[in-house]
Design a protein that fits this description.
Helices cover about 35% and strands about 25% of the residues. The protein is α/β, with parallel strands linked by helices and about 220 residues long. It has one domain: Rossmann fold (3-Layer(aba) Sandwich). Strands 1-2-3-5-4-6-7-8-9 form a 9-stranded mixed beta sheet, with helices on both faces. Strand 2 and strand 3 form a beta hairpin. Helix 1 packs across helix 6 and helix 3 packs across helix 4. The longest helix has 17 residues. The N and C termini lie far apart (about 35 Å). The N terminus is likely disordered.
Length: about 220
Amino acid sequence: MAAADVDGDQEVRLAIGGETLVGDLARPARAGAVVLFAHGSGSSRHSPRNRAVARALRDSGLATLLIDLLTPREEAEDAVTGHLRFDIALLARRLEAATAWLREEPSTADLPVAYFGASTGGGAALVAAADRPEVFAVVSRGGRPDLAGPALPRVKAPTLLIVGGDDVPVIAMNRAAAAHMGTEVRIEIVPGASHLFEEPGALERVAALAARWFEDHLPSTDAA
C-alpha cells in the first residue's frame, strides 16, 4: 500500500512473511526496467551512496525501489548482534518477495526487474536471482558474492561485480565467487576506490558502470 512521496519517491509498505517492510519507489517517464536495491552490512534505504546511484539510474531511464530488508525492530537487534545482516537466506527471501510485489504492482508490473546489491546485499541479490530467473541482470557494489555460496552456479542473470581498487580482501572474494558462476560475469575494479567508494568520482563511476550494464542487458521488446 502506497503512502506519500518522499524526495520525489513514493513510500511503499510491503507485507512480507508477517513483517512490514518499507521502501521508496520511483518510476521516471518511459522507464525501461526497475532496479531493486539490496542493502547490507547495517545500511538502509537511506544510504546516501545507494540513493546517489539510484538517482543516476533514474536519469538513465530506470525505475528504482530502495527497500529496507529488515524492520526497525530487526535493525535495532542487528545493531547490537550484527547477525541479521549476514542472514543471507532471510535477506534473499525478502528480496524475492519484493520482486513478486513488483510483478503485481500496477506501476511496475510491465517492467523487467534487475538487482543492485551492496556489501552483504550483493550475496543476497545473487541468491534471490538464482531462484527468480526473470531477473535479467545483477550489479554488485563492494559486495560479498561469496556469501551466495552454493547458489552461485545457479545464477543465470548476467552479473557485474564492481570493487574498489583499494578494497583488496573484497577483490579476492569477488574473484573467487566469479569462478563458481556459469553465467556472464565481469569484475570491474575502480582504481583508488575504497570499500565505500567515498573518493571523488568513485561513486559516479559505479553508477555509470551499473547503468550501462543494465542497459546492455535489457530484454528485447521486439515483437519479432
